[in-house]
Specification:
GO terms for molecular function: hydrolase activity, hydrolyzing O-glycosyl compounds. Keywords: Disulfide bond, Glycosidase, Hydrolase, Membrane, Signal, Transmembrane, Transmembrane helix. This is X8 domain-containing protein. It is a single chain. The chain has 329 residues and is of the alpha/beta class. The chain has two domains: 129 residues, TIM Barrel (Alpha-Beta Barrel); 116 residues, no CATH class.
Amino acid sequence: MVAIPNKMLDMMTDYDTAREWVHKNVSAYNFGGGVNIRYVAVGNEPFLSSLNGTFLNVTLPALQNIQKALDEAGVGDTVKATVPLNADVYQSPKDNPVPSAGRFRPEISGLMTEIVQFLNQSGAPFTVNIYPGLFRKLASNAGTPLRPNQYIEIYLFSLIDEDVKSVDPGYFERHWGVMRYDGQPKYAMDPTGQGRNTALVGARGVEYLPRVWCVLNANAGNMSRLADNVGYACSNADCTSLSLGSTCNGMDPAGNASYAFNAYFQVQDQDEQACGFDGLAVRTRQDPSTGTCNFTIQLETTSAAAGRPTVLLTTALLALVLAAMVTML
């Protein structure tokens, strides 16, 4: 499954743009020995209540254009366009809170009916993100109450953490991966559904940049610009692990500053100039990681020469990080 971000849905309402996207992201990999693409996710939970209807008018046209482009490219029989939806698109009665008793939310009922009809016509699945004890359910081969003998097709979201994903729904959005950013397992899980406490096999042959970190310079005399520099670092790198309840929450202010500085330093592929911060930071070969908080080392990739995308931090998280700096000023 390859995906089109919500922010691109408006672009896909133009058919030429949709056709070009399919050419670059599907057709280019559709060859013997290439990628086995089966679905295109047109957006991700675009009707989530918290998005306040932002994508109501563009999702269906984008879905229709992508499927048309897939058909025109000659892959429409094997690659289907669908829309992964949050379970909040439907509501169940309080006295019978099961999905089969639910109905689409009133304000999107007509639109959802059109989407379901289109999916039925194109032979694409209705896709919904739900959170059961999933592997045990699949292992039982029981299907659903309505269709007890039919195979349930599922996908795991997601394989690895995504440090540039939008955090509008919450800071957790960048941490859905069953693997860390480098393809190493986060926790034990058993895809067979047999209840075994099994560690997944991590990615092999992963190459990292040198074991160098950027941390707060304890000998820096003037800390007056610390908050500004931490803010800059977290506006251009991922500091979500510092948020309340996350793995790096609970460190002292020095630890928070070091995490922010290192996040930026690694995003910049360990560029020496990226560990300055007005003299407040210093490079070190001593791993600053704690028992629960991992100070990452960037992967060795071709992006080192091409530069990396900018990550913008939400105001709320930035305020949280900066608040922790106050005691150092």
